[in-house]
Amino acid sequence: MKKRFIQKAIMFLQFHWLKLLLMAFAAVLLTVLGFGIHAFMTIDSYTRKTLLAQQPVYLPMGAIQAIIFVSMYMLFLRGGFTKLSKKRIKSKNIKISFDDVIGLEEPKLEAMEVVSLIKDHKRIQNIGGKIIKGILMVGPPGCGKTLLAKAIATEADIPFLSMAGSEFVEVFVGVGASRVRTLFKKARQYAKAEGACIIFIDELDVIGSARSFNQWGGGGMETNSTQNQLLSEMDGLRDSQENIIVVGATNADISKIDPALLRPGRFDRKIHIDKPLVEDREKLFQFYLTKIKHAPEIDCRRLANFTVGKSPADIENVVKEAALIATRNGRNLVEYSDISSAMERIDLGLKRKRRIAPKERINTAYHEAGHAISAYYLHPLDDVFKLSIVTRDESLGVTHLQPLEEIMAKDRNWFLAEIETLLAGYTAEKIKFGVTTLGVGSDFRRATNLAQTMVWRLGMGLQGEVGDYITPLGRTSDVEGLLAHLSDGTKDKLNKEVEGILKICSNSVTDLLSKESDLMDKLADSLLEKDELEYEEIDAICQKYGVTKTRKIEEVGLLKKFRDALGPIKNNPPAAPDKKEDIKDKKPPETPPEHEK
To answer: How far apart are CA 558 and CA 407, in angstroms?
Structure first.
């Protein structure tokens, strides 16, 4: 205890020596000033008046000299641009424990093990082990990396220093390296006094990305010098080794981080934080719904099944947006419809009240119906959750697809189904009207990109061409430079395979929509009547009017698994009733297409 008290006293003097020095200087100055005033009053009146007359000249000159001295001192001797004003964050002020980290069970277990190693570092050293030097948390944004770092600091109950990677980067050379030195100097002082210290660097990829070297060695780049200093501080030659743990977080791929940072002795542990699975999403909805007033019949398991691929931040945003929508509609409780509207607003965009010509609405309804039928029957992983011809942002309509299960590695069937679904809007317009609209442009771009990826990079072509023909030389943005290593014959062969995939998918969709023309009319009719169709309504219409009885998503078993997890659907909306006047008999108000004249 006595030794710890002495260390804390030394650390206090190191941090506050300037303040104590200024206080002592002020006391001496006041004492001297008192003696000076007493001496001034004892001299004769003529000398006293002469000295007073000179003060208007001496005082401004003294003030200017003092300002210049203080500015130069602060700029050069006290750090200036390199000064680091980061203070310790006390664990009791963070107030985030592992219980507050929801939906990250596996990363939380690894973090808890790290905390136990920090607390028992003496026992580890006694058996010859080494203290952990660094922890790198990797994962997509909004998944809880920063929250987990705060929980580590709270549970370990040691000093916590936090900085962002961008705070090390300045226009002046050497500033980043100086700030790294200052940060670790503070951490060592805290480690000596408290036994250990955590340094958290958010967005580590800013200073930790792979270093670039040129003909001059690359050492002149500011990020290189900053990273070199970080490498030296984490595992360099020093006379003493303090218990300092560096926790880094990044959204970038771990392959983008410099290998020198990833080696043992620096970032010893890598914690991968992925988007939550269905059980974790259910817990997240339960947690965030406790913060708002909501209807008791809201089923969190159902919401979790409808939010595949969402991060914890996305789920929190959905609940917050639902509360705003309920308030805007004058309700005191958040209902399921509010959460559904919040998901639509976030995923699909804000609805816009634009006046659309009747013919254009009919074209859009058939375009979206084509997408929906293709996805409903041909897609092996995604299901149609919503159809809409309400204008959002720049789009006239939208078909909202949602995966029923987390699939990390997409196969060839998924790519083909995506291309077929994208081409279905064009095919539906062509079958119904004989002409197509501008709305097929974005679908064509995405379909072509997927087909090119299949052939040029993934070996999923028709002729069995294997290899990645772009990535090996993909360090330049020049397209001609990327393909310079390929012969014209190879390029033509690969391009023909891309065209072949697009034609096969187009023919498959054409056959399906020609067979399901009545279903396409019913879906378009219901869209024109209601503007939007929900998941249950789409399924009911397809079950009633669809000719095709097999679905790809049923063949792989995902649909039954999803519906079993979803539970019974309450108030299942009926299919759209038959009408005497069908939409295929309606005539557009404008001039009909050429093929109908």
So the answer is: 11
Of 1-15, 151-165, 176-190, 194-208, the poorest mean pLDDT is in 1-15
Whether residue 199 contacts residue 246, with contact meaning beta carbons closer than 8 Å, is answered with yes
For residue 160, the enclosing domain spans 91-272
The Cα–Cα gap between 107 and 516 comes to 48
Q: Please pick, among 167, 222, 282, 368, the residue that the annotation labels catalytic.
A: 368
Residues 189-204 have a mean pLDDT of 84
How many domains are contained in the chain? 4
Determine, yes or no, domain membership for 181: yes
- Give the domain-ending residue among 216, 247, 272: 272
> Do 159 and 259 reside in the same domain of the chain?
yes
Cross-strand bridge partners of residue 402: 383
Q: Residue 198: helix, strand or coil by DSSP? A: strand
Same domain, 365 and 422: yes
CB–CB of 257/205 below 8 Å? yes
> Last residue of some domain: 348, 372, 391?
348
Distance set, CA 398 to CA 25, 105, 370, 533 (Å): 73, 36, 11, 11
Cα gap 380→403, rounded to integer Å: 9
Query: 429 and 366 in contact (C-beta within 8 Å)?
Result: yes
Percent of the chain residues topping a pLDDT of 70? 81
256-299 pLDDT tens trace? 888 888 888 888 788 888 888 888 888 899 999 988 888 888 88
Tell me if 354 is assigned to some domain. Answer: no
222 in active site: no
Instruction: Please say whether the beta carbons of 62 and 126 come within 8 A.
Output: no
**Residue 321 and residue 408 in one domain:** no
Report yes or no on 353 lying in a domain. Answer: no
Note the maximum CA span of the chain. 119
> Is 286 found in the same domain as 267?
no
pTM score: 0.70
What is the Cα–Cα distance from 361 to 532, expressed in whole angstroms?
Answer: 12
DSSP state of 203: S
The mean pLDDT value for 203-208 works out to 86
Q: State the pLDDT at residue 306.
A: 81
Region of residue 401 (left: phi > 0; alpha: psi -120 to 50; beta: else):
beta
Per-residue pLDDT, 596: 38
Pick from 540, 471, 464: nearest CA to 500: 464
Clarify whether residues 27 and 168 are in a common domain: no
Q: For residue 334, how far is the Cα from the chain centroid?
A: 27
Q: Phi and psi at residue 29, in whole multiples of 5°?
A: -65, -40
Same domain for 449 and 514?
A: yes
CA distances from 264 to 152, 212, 247, 259, 267 (A): 21, 22, 14, 10, 6
